[in-house]
Specification:
Layout (H helix, E strand, L loop, with lengths): L2 H16 L7 H12 L1 H12 L8 H17 L3 E5 L10 E6 L3 E10 L14 E3 L2 E3 L3 H20 L6 E8 L9 H4 L1 H8 L3 E4 L12 E2 L5 E10 L16 H16 L6 E10 L1 E5 L4 E5 L8 E10 L2 H15 L7 E10 L6 H16 L6 E2 L10 H4 L4 E3 L6 E2 L7 E3 L1 H17 L2
Parallel strand pairs: 3-6, 3-7, 7-16, 8-15
Antiparallel strand pairs: 1-2, 2-6, 4-5, 5-18, 9-13, 9-14, 10-13, 11-12, 17-18
Helix pairs in contact: 1-10, 2-5, 2-12, 3-5, 5-12, 8-9, 10-12
InterPro entries: Bact_exopeptidase_dim_dom, Peptidase_M20, Peptidase_M20_dimer, Peptidase_M20A
Keywords: Hydrolase, Metal-binding, Signal
Organism: Massilia soli
Length: 433
């Protein structure tokens, strides 16, 4: 039986086995009531966090959001600390909160404080429209952070956090993880190795029928850098034997070759920035570039920066081979090279991940919130969970429900905070008994 078929069969068996299990216990009903009683205050906490710009490179803003959530975790009896990164890495650091106990599973809860909206972003902050709200990072993933806080708060209020082992890490650079990653994710990996289950609170994706899903697998993320050279000369000579085709035409040929010959299911490659002309420069740290050229001069240089996402290393190696072959087919008068850089490892779909999903789905069903299905791995981007998934059973995508992530239209369904916090609180309660 193929691994994917085995995984689906196991999930069906687990779901069927859970169907006849207990409904909410009296203490679980109290937990739900605590979450619901806090719903207006939870929205207020979300609003305060969204109104603080915390683009990855706005280190002061990231720390300010971290301090906001740190105060909440302090009140819940967690031991909190701020993990600084080396200055050369140009990252704000991470918030860590821990409780030490001996009861039940050891849990690691993951969120992130940063957003893609930097300090100079024109995107508005908190804007409420009825039952939805838009704003910087409202669903990716300040909403997920609030879900964590409110679930833990409900458990704290009924005394269910006593003697549990729970670590909470909110990273400050998930949207642009600092390099080297063996340093920026070192503490997270160490926590995972001392945990039994990891839960991450990126946004919940709805299926085509509007039902909630969760993530048991995610594609890897890597980058590619394409450098193209041509012969600078008078534009009237373009296409000629002496002048050749120039760097811009060669870059266009290569990228279109990728589009025509490299595409396959669950594989994507995105040229996110392209600079061409007679003088080009790219600032890696700031993700910004400059280009100079004239319409009557053949461009002699093009720089392309992009990402490449894949399900496994076999698919990665196949894509690399095809892309290198396309790059090597130079137009006259040009040359080009491509380099690849690894970023996020894959999160494989494992029996352990599927078992955590089954338990989460059962918690949701018992609370009257419906079953939770697995979202196809190819539909999710990269996330912090992928650094810990090789070491611990993992589940992601259990935060709030929104749309338009990373765009000016990013928004959130406010009621999803309460739903996700209820599911999470019940799951944590059951895992830590």
């Amino acid at each position: 039986m193929k691994p994917c078929v085995l995984a689906l069969a196991l999930l069906s068996a687990l779901s069927a086995g859970a169907a006849g299990a207990q409904q909410l216990s009296p203490i679980e009903e109290r937990i739900v009531a605590e979450v619901k009683a806090r719903s207006p205050a939870a929205i207020g906490l979300l609003e305060r966090s969204v109104n603080i710009n915390s683009g990855t490179m706005n280190h002061a803003g990231v720390r300010e959001v971290g301090q906001l959530f740190r105060r909440e975790l302090d009140q819940l009896g967690f031991k909190t600390s701020w993990i600084d990164m080396p200055p050369a890495m140009q990252r704000a650091g991470h918030l860590l909160a821990t409780r030490a106990g001996k009861q039940g599973k050891r849990l690691l809860l993951l969120g992130h404080l940063d957003t893609v909206f930097e300090l100079d972003s024109p995107v508005q902050k908190w804007q409420r429209q009825g039952d939805r709200v838009s704003g910087q990072g409202v669903s990716d993933m300040k909403g997920g952070n609030v879900v964590v806080i409110e679930a833990l708060r409900a458990l704290h209020r009924v005394g269910a956090l006593d003697n549990t082992s729970i670590a909470v890490m909110f990273t400050g650079d998930e949207e642009d993880a600092g390099d080297p990653k063996d340093i920026s994710r070192r503490d997270m990996v160490a926590l995972a190795k001392n945990s039994d289950i990891a839960l991450a609170f990126e946004g919940t994706v709805l299926d085509q029928d509007g039902r909630a899903t969760a993530t048991v697998g995610r594609r890897s993320s890597s980058g590619f850098a394409l450098e193209v050279k041509g012969k600078q000369g008078h534009s009237s000579g373009i296409f000629g034997e002496r002048a050749g085709y120039g760097a811009v035409y060669e870059a266009a040929r290569i990228l279109d070759g990728f589009r025509q010959h490299v595409i396959e299911p669950d594989l994507t490659f995105n040229p996110g920035v392209i600079l061409g002309g007679t003088q080009v420069g790219y600032d890696e740290l700031g993700s910004r570039g400059t280009a100079f050229g004239k319409t009557n001069v053949i461009a002699n240089a093009v720089t392309v920066k992009g990402d490449l996402r894949y399900l496994d290393t076999v698919q990665r190696d196949r894509a690399h081979e095809k892309m290198r072959a396309i790059v090597a087919q130079h137009l006259p008068g040009t040359s080009a090279s491509i380099a690849f850089e690894e970023s996020y490892p894959p999160m494989a779909v494992t029996p352990g991940n599927l078992q955590v999903l089954a338990l989460y789905s059962k918690a949701s069903q018992d609370a009257g919130l419906g079953a939770i299905a697995a979202v196809p791995a190819g539909l999710r981007g990269a996330g912090d969970i992928q650094f810990v998934a090789p070491y611990v059973d993992s589940l992601d995508g259990i935060g709030a429900t929104g749309s338009g992530a990373h765009s000016p239209a990013e928004d959130l369904e406010l009621a999803s905070i309460e739903r996700a916090a209820i599911r999470t609180a019940i799951l944590i309660y059951r895992l830590t008994r």
